[in-house]
């Protein structure tokens, strides 16, 4: 009998929102819970009438239902809902009428309740209190299992079910779990009495599938209805009963979808692999319970990443593209084979690593065996294991068990997959042979012979492999048993620099030309560094640190102490609940893992203990309680961030298991001795650390490939932990009043916030939890150790994942999570090409710092006494502006008056939120600074994708504000010498901004004239004349005043030990690079590339040009020009000039100028907008007139980027002069609907570039990569010269006595850099990369691209050597 052809339909968006409202009302209002489906006729009738959502509330809650609904975030804040409460004798019904179909479209649904009334031997006993239109049945039977009788509710195309992303249990319920936590099944669907019928009237058998998309079968032939096939979980029992093994043809997923009886199975697989209601959910959740071949079910995010749909016209159905062709629906797909296979292998590798880490070798082996024995195709592509490292990991794991049989089987699989064993493969086999007391010499010789056949030199084995624990000694033992004379080759020495820019660094300067052989020695003794290293190791192993807050609170009262005690007890209860719940989850996933031979989440969850997971969850709770009442992060972000933290903890724990930590502790003591060696015989710190590693080869390798977890694994673990927080973390209603009846209710709930027409899910603490936290008035702040400065010098960077902190959880390059391209380029090129970049990072990281305690104490006192906005010290919450109150006659106000009042309140709310954010920022910064007030510390550094360097601690570093910089000074001081005091004075005047166009001699003279004010500022910061407060940078000015005063009052100024850093700042550095690239004479003069007796100020020059244009237009009667008389000032257009080089648009420039004009009291505010537009236009015009070459280079870069992104469909990339590959991570954003919520899909970010962003960002990013290169070259040559050097991008710091030396090096390296053919090299690289290595099949496209890329702008006639004599190039 031929079945009918049906279509796969999508559920209505309204149903998902209905379930969300229902779920949240359940927790907040106490609404009774369950679903009853209506008959199809009734649903159709309801869909034609006015949509209404009825929510039944228990009678006990009737009296306060209205107030609760008013306080319910989703309902009270949603302008598209009106609410009406009807009171009845037994219950209250809340009717929600949608005002707009754009937000909510709901058919009439009655919500009843699912109540646990009894537990029988066969399972739970359910009943319904809602008898409305339909009868409910008691689901319990003594004749068969309760699980198979608890049937899913009727599913029609527009009916409703529980939300997949809610607290609903997404699996069959185990009997033993019900008594422990029955709340998990509160949203479980109920059944109807008369069964379910399809459209033809045939009765359908109901199968238990815990999913809203229920599988319905014809009772007569047990064939699945393709239109109703589930895309979520299926039970093994279900598969064994209804699914037969597929044929090879069926496994290939035919492009042509037919729904006839012959091809029902193919349709089933198509729907299962393409339709997913939750793309982010880990695929193993759906796949691990399936029988072969449905063990690798693919989420829609996976599909969108690797498969593009090609069809015209297009009709989107369940994420697939269809083209109607008669009665058939044909799907055409273009599959990215490389990415699909890569993703598959990354998944399997992470799974095998996790299994081996937790001792589940057999599970990993069965998984690999399964994918070898059951090959299958996805979208016509053979999916198989192609990464040899997957086999190697498992071979080493079996070797520790001394099991040769599974290793031989794995070797067979390797051959079967046409892979060639490498050094690591044979090393694993040799390890297995070397572990027994009696070694099988014949087998060892056989392995060595095989290596010879494969042309693998056994003497290079130890240089080509990485080892853990004691693997090295057993491998050596096995080799020497077969070849007693064996001696391994020595490890390779660090490579020397190459190229004109770097080759001079290979030789050290003669001693008489070096200022200090080791500028970093002497801040601590070697023994002190070793002792502090132990503390640092322990802190990093712990993962977090508690810092006392500097915020001065009143002495805690008895009530406060009582609240603290209650909060502490509550946290302990939360921890116990989380541990217990996680153990139950772990048992469940263990059972799933035992039944499955495929990829699953269980090994990842075993990496940490339940107690460790509970501690991480509690840390998240602490962080959430510190957020402001108006702010709550998106739940998707929190889940991903928590999954990332779990991954970091697992990396550290794996280092403990592998023995890396013990070896690192031992070798770091050797590094401490070299770091503190006054003679420092090495060229740089990287070579020093490299030599230490080469001299200590025993034990595990420290430079190893980082373990990578797929994004969906991190998200799934983060989701699991946050689900536990939402489900298990509960608040006690009697905590504030012991007389109240004790009730437990969720401590956290989720809300949905709409922003820019997008709806996002967020998590909020219950108001009672916030109240308890506030009344407890806790004094401690928790931080991750990666966010803190280090107590010892950072580990030198050697590779992409080895360097920075002692346990190396820091990334070398800060990249978006899914921006794979740049890391791929780095891995292809190897780290030898970027040695200079690594050495620059190591130089910046090696500088030790201390706190300027005088400034810190002043700031803390001011912070705790209501702050000072003029000095950028934010006031406390008590000083925030109060919200405007609604007047009593609010209802009588006109709509305009109401709107104005609402607008004023919103503005105040926003200002309060911004002030609170600033207050928290300073609280964190000052608390961390106070924690390290008596310490010497270091900042590890890393890069952004452009090559710019940043300290890794985010809250407190020298890249911060004026206040942050004033708190830091060098730990190592130097005598001022003859000119040091003069440089301090010049630096002081530079900070004030008073003498921008004066020479250094004039600035020095001004400082000498102001010595009385300087000393008064130092002696009486707040009670004297307060001259320092008029400065552009007041806090750094005050710190410099104190330093100068101390030096003047010392007995010997030249021998005064100064720790104060002196800055030399580039003069609009971006324009300097443009002028040098184009050899632009006029532009070079404007930005001080040419020598002058006084500094040129490009901002003032542009302001003068704009003013001359304004005078001309005013004379012609231009009203805007007339109004602007006297308001064209340097400060007004400075930001626009500065950011023009970095790609600011005219619209952005207009906004910048508006902000400046609003700060001028006399400016007529009604003309602000048109005046800003006028000034932006004139500023751009004047810049083009002044920097002609700059405009040409910018346009060429923009045109090239646009052509590359459009024609090649790939992001723009280039290589810096120091060899760092850069790929712009700007890709199209894909917004998808998930459960009625807008979700950003990042899965294809590395595939489709955003052309507009690629084009606009290329010029500024390219210039940023050049200024970073200049900074790095300066840092390397400063180290060679023996002086301390630190930078903040284009602002270079050193000791006062060494400023002339740094200035000379800075200018020399700028000239050396721009003597390179930078633009020509860029053109050649782009042609080679995009037209040769990745050539397109279209000759016309190649010719167009080549013409654009070869059209390098012509250069001017500026002599670059003039920079060497320019005093104000950096000043």
UniProtKB/TrEMBL annotation:
One GO CC annotation: mitochondrial DNA-directed RNA polymerase complex
A Pfam family annotated for this UniProt entry: RPOL_N
Record bears the keyword Nucleotidyltransferase: yes
Known EC number: 2.7.7.6
Recorded catalytic activity of this chain's protein: RNA(n) + a ribonucleoside 5'-triphosphate = RNA(n+1) + diphosphate
Any GO MF annotation of the entry: mitochondrial promoter sequence-specific DNA binding
Full protein name: DNA-directed RNA polymerase
Annotated function: DNA-dependent RNA polymerase catalyzes the transcription of DNA into RNA using the four ribonucleoside triphosphates as substrates.
Lineage of producing organism: Eukaryota, Metazoa, Spiralia, Lophotrochozoa, Mollusca
Organism whose genome encodes this protein: Patella caerulea (Rayed Mediterranean limpet)
UniProt-listed PROSITE patterns: RNA_POL_PHAGE_1, RNA_POL_PHAGE_2
GO biological process, one term: mitochondrial transcription
Enzyme class per UniProt: transferase
Keywords tagged on the record: DNA-directed RNA polymerase, Nucleotidyltransferase, Transcription, Transferase, Transit peptide
Domain DNA-directed RNA polymerase N-terminal: 534-846
InterPro entries recorded: DNA-dir_Rpol_C_phage-type, DNA-dir_Rpol_phage-type, DNA/RNA_pol_sf, RNA_POL_N_sf, RPOL_N
Matches recorded under PANTHER family: DNA-DIRECTED RNA POLYMERASE, MITOCHONDRIAL
Family listed: Belongs to the phage and mitochondrial RNA polymerase family.
């Amino acid at each position: 009998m031929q079945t009918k052809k049906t279509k796969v339909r999508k559920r209505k968006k309204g149903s998902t929102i209905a379930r969300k409202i229902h779920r949240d009302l359940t927790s907040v209002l106490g609404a009774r819970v369950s679903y009853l489906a209506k008959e199809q006729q009734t649903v159709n009738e309801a869909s034609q009438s006015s949509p209404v959502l009825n929510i039944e509330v228990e009678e006990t809650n009737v009296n306060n239902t209205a107030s609760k609904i008013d306080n319910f975030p989703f309902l009270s804040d949603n302008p598209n809902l009106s609410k009406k409460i009807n009171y009845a004798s037994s219950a209250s019904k809340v009717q929600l009428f949608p005002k707009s179909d754009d937000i909510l479209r709901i058919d009439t649904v009655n919500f009843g309740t699912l109540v646990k009334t009894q537990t029988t031997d066969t399972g739970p006993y359910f009943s319904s209190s809602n008898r409305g239109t339909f009868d409910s049945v008691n689901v319990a039977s003594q004749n068969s299992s309760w699980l198979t009788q608890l049937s899913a509710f009727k599913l029609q195309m527009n009916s409703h079910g529980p939300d997949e992303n809610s607290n609903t249990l997404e699996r069959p319920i185990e009997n033993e779990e019900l008594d422990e936590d029955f709340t998990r099944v509160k949203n479980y669907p109920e059944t109807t009495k008369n069964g379910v019928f399809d459209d033809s009237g045939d009765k359908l058998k109901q199968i238990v599938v815990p999913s809203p998309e229920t599988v319905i079968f014809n009772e007569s032939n047990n064939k699945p209805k393709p239109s109703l096939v589930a895309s979520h979980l299926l039970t093994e029992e279900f598969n064994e009963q209804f699914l037969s093994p597929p044929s090879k043809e069926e496994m290939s997923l035919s492009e042509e979808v037919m729904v006839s009886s012959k091809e029902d199975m193919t349709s089933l697989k198509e729907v299962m692999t393409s339709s997913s209601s939750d793309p982010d959910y880990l695929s193993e959740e759906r796949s691990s319970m399936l029988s072969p071949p449905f063990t690798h079910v693919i989420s829609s995010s996976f599909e969108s990443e690797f498969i593009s749909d090609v069809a015209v016209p297009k009709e989107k159905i369940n994420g697939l593209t269809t083209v109607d062709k008669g009665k058939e629906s044909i799907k055409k797909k273009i599959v990215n084979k490389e990415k699909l296979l890569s993703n598959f292998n990354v998944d399997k590798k992470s799974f095998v690593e996790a299994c081996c880490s937790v001792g589940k070798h057999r599970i990993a082996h069965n998984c690999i065996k399964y994918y070898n024995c059951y090959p299958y195709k996805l979208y016509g592509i053979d999916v198989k294991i192609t990464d040899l490292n997957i086999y190697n990991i498992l071979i080493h794991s079996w070797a520790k068990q001394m099991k040769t049989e599974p290793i031989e089987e794995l070797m067979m699989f390797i051959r079967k997959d046409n892979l060639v064993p490498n050094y690591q493969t044979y090393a694993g086999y040799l390890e297995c042979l070397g572990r027994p007391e009696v070694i099988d010499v014949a087998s060892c010789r056989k392995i060595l012979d095989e290596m010879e056949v494969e042309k693998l030199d056994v003497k290079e084995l130890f240089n080509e492999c990485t080892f853990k624990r004691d693997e090295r000694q057993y491998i050596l033992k096995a080799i020497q048993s077969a070849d007693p004379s064996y001696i391994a080759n020595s490890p390779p020495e660090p490579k020397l620099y190459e190229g004109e820019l770097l080759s001079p660094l290979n030789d050290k300067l003669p001693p008489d030309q070096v200022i200090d052989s080791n500028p970093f020695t002497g801040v601590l003794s070697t023994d002190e560094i070793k002792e502090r290293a132990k503390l640092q190791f322990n802190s990093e192993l712990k993962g977090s640190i508690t810092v006392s807050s500097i915020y001065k609170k009143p002495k805690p009262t008895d009530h406060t102490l009582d609240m603290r005690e209650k909060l502490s007890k509550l946290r302990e209860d939360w921890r116990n609940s989380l541990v217990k719940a996680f153990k139950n989850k772990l048992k469940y996933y263990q059972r799933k893992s035992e039944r499955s031979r495929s990829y699953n989440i269980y090994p990842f969850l075993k990496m940490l203990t339940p107690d460790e997971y509970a501690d991480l969850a509690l840390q998240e709770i602490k962080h959430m309680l510190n957020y402001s009442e108006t702010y709550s992060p998106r739940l998707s972000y929190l889940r991903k961030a928590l999954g990332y933290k779990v991954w970091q903890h697992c990396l550290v724990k794996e280092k403990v298991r592998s023995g890396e930590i013990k070896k690192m502790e031992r070798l770091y003591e050797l590094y401490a001795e070299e770091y503190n060696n006054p003679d420092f015989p090495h060229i740089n710190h990287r070579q020093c650390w490299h030599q230490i590693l080469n001299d200590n080869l025993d034990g595990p390798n420290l430079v190893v490939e980082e373990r990578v977890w797929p994004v969906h694994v991190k998200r799934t673990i983060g989701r699991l932990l946050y689900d536990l927080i939402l489900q298990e973390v509960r608040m006690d209603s009697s905590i504030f009043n012991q007389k109240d009846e004790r009730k437990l209710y969720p401590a956290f709930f989720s809300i949905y916030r709409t922003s820019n027409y997008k709806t996002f899910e967020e998590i909020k603490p219950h108001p009672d939890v916030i109240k308890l936290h506030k009344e407890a008035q806790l004094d401690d702040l928790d931080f991750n150790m990666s966010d803190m400065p280090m107590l010892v010098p950072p580990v030198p960077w050697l590779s992409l994942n080895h360097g920075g902190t002692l346990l190396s959880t820091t990334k070398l390059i800060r990249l978006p999570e899914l921006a794979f391209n740049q890391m791929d380029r780095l891995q292809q090129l190897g780290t030898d090409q970027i040695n200079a970049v690594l050495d620059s990072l190591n130089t910046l990281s090696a500088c030790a710092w201390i706190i300027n305690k005088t400034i810190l104490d002043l700031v803390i006192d001011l912070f705790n006494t209501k702050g000072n906005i003029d000095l950028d010290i934010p006031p406390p919450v008590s000083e925030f502006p109060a919200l405007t109150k609604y007047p009593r006659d609010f209802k009588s106000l006109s709509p305009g008056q109401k709107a104005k009042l609402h607008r004023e309140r919103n503005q105040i709310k926003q200002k309060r939120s911004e002030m609170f954010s600033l207050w928290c920022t300073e609280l964190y910064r000052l608390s961390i600074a106070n924690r390290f007030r008596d310490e010497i510390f270091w900042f590890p550094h890393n890069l952004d994708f452009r090559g710019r360097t940043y300290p890794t601690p985010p809250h407190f570093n020298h890249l911060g504000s004026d206040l942050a910089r004033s708190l830091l000074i060098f730990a190592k001081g130097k005598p001022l010498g003859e000119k040091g005091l003069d440089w301090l004075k010049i630096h002081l005047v530079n900070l004030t901004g008073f003498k921008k166009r004066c020479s250094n001699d004039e600035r020095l003279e001004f400082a000498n004239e102001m010595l009385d004010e300087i000393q008064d500022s130092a002696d009486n910061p707040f009670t004297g004349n307060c001259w320092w407060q008029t400065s552009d940078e007041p806090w750094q000015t005050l710190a410099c005043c104190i330093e100068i005063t101390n030096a003047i009052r010392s007995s010997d100024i030249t021998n005064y030990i100064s720790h104060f850093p002196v800055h030399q700042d580039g003069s609009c550095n971006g324009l300097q690079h443009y002028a040098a690239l184009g050899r632009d004479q006029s532009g070079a003069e404007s930005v001080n590339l040419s020598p002058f007796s006084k500094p040129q100020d490009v901002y003032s020059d542009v302001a003068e040009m704009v003013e001359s244009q304004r005078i001309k237009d005013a004379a012609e009667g231009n009203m805007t020009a007339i109004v602007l008389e006297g308001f064209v000032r340097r400060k007004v257009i400075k930001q626009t000039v500065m950011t023009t080089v970095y790609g600011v648009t005219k619209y952005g420039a207009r906004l910048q100028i508006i902000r400046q004009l609003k700060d001028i009291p006399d400016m007529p505010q009604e003309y602000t907008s048109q005046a800003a537009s006028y000034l932006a236009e004139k500023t751009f015009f004047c810049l083009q007139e002044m920097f002609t070459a700059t405009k040409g280079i910018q346009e060429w870069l923009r045109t090239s980027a646009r052509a590359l992104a459009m024609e090649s469909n790939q992001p723009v990339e280039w290589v810096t002069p120091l060899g760092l590959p850069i790929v712009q991570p700007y890709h199209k954003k894909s917004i998808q609907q998930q459960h009625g919520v807008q979700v950003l899909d990042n899965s294809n970010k590395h595939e489709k570039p955003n052309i507009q962003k690629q084009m606009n960002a290329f010029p500024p990013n390219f210039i940023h990569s050049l200024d970073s290169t200049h900074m790095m070259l300066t840092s390397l040559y400063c180290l060679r010269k023996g002086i301390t050097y630190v930078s903040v991008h284009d602002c270079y710091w050193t000791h006062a006595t060494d400023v002339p030396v740094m200035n000379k090096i800075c200018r020399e390296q700028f000239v050396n850099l721009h003597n390179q053919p930078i633009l020509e090299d860029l053109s050649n690289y782009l042609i080679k990369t995009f037209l040769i290595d990745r050539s397109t099949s279209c000759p016309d496209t190649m010719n167009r691209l080549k013409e654009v890329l070869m059209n390098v702008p012509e250069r001017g006639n500026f002599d670059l050597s003039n920079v060497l004599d320019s005093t104000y190039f950096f000043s």
